[in-house]
Amino acid sequence: MSIADKLKTVKESLGNCQLVAVSKTKPNEDLIQAYEAGQRALGENKVQELTDKAEALPKDIEWHMIGHLQRNKVKYIAPFVHLIHSVDSVRLLKEINKQGRKIDRVIPVLLQIHIAEEENKYGLDEEELHELLSSEAFNEMNHVDVQGLMGMATFTDDKDKIRREFKSLKKLFDKTAKDYNDEKLNLKELSMGMSGDYEIAIEEGSTMVRIGSKIFGER
Questions:
Q1: Distance between CA 203 and CA 178 in Å, rounded?
Q2: Are 59 and 78 in contact (CB under 8 A)?
Q3: pTM given for the model
Q4: What is the DSSP string of the chain?
Q5: What is the mean pLDDT of each run of 10 residues along the chain (219 residues)?
Q6: How far is CA 90 from the centre of its chain?
Q7: 109, β-bridge pairs
């Protein structure tokens, strides 16, 4: 199957859920095939690769930063990134706000929540999320737009476990939206689900999925 055909098959299974096609490690020719098939939202997990591709490829591509982001790399993507999915600390959010202020741009972000039992996953826990959103520092950040939450389930074949983790994130998303949504905060996106578990994520309320191998093939 061509990339265009795979893309069509995936999109038909998503309903109203948004697709970020994960293009990390893939050559520009593959990305162009997805682009020509109508896909605009592409996800990368390394800053250098993202900036190189953004420079070389059509300017109407919406670039999503989905990998762990180091504070010293924020400045390279701040001018053009469409959405940063992986804000996992107050310090990183402050840096994004600082870089946004420098270029007079409000940068859209998602706060990454740690829902997996694996230790190597990044993210805030519920208490840290609450502390961040109720802090004076957050209230003064005018160059970030927190649009929602993101989480990654445990890498496992246990579908019940994956479902429990997604369910817990949706519950936290709903609670946070209820407790904090106002003029400053408008949570609307819940980014959860990848190639191996996106069907469960959609059933549990995901609004945005990150799918790579089902479109571009295995790395």
A1: 21
A2: no
A3: 0.95
A4: --HHHHHHHHHHT-TT-EEEEE-TT--HHHHHHHHHTT--EEEES-HHHHHHHHHHS-TT-EEEE-S---GGGHHHHTTT-SEEEEE-SHHHHHHHHHHHHHTT-PEEEEEEE--SS-TT---B-HHHHHHHHTSHHHHT--SEEEEEEEE---SSS-HHHHHHHHHHHHHHHHHHHHHH-SSS----EEEE--TTTHHHHHHTT-SEEEE-HHHH---
A5: 95 95 95 97 97 97 97 98 96 97 98 83 90 93 96 93 96 95 89 95 97 88
A6: 17
A7: 84, 146
For residues 24 and 44, is the Cβ–Cβ distance under 8 A?
yes
What pLDDT, on a 0 to 100 scale, did the predictor assign at position 218?
Answer: 77
Q: In terms of Cα–Cα distance, which of 147, 146, 186, 194 is closest to 166? A: 194
Residue listed under structure tokens 């098959």: 9
- Domain ranges within the chain, ordered by starting residue: 3-216
Class of domain 3-216: alpha beta
pLDDT on residue 217: 87
Hey, how many other C-beta atoms are within 10 angstroms of the C-beta on 110? 24
Q: Are 149 and 111 in contact (CB under 8 A)?
A: yes
> What is the residue type of 181?
N
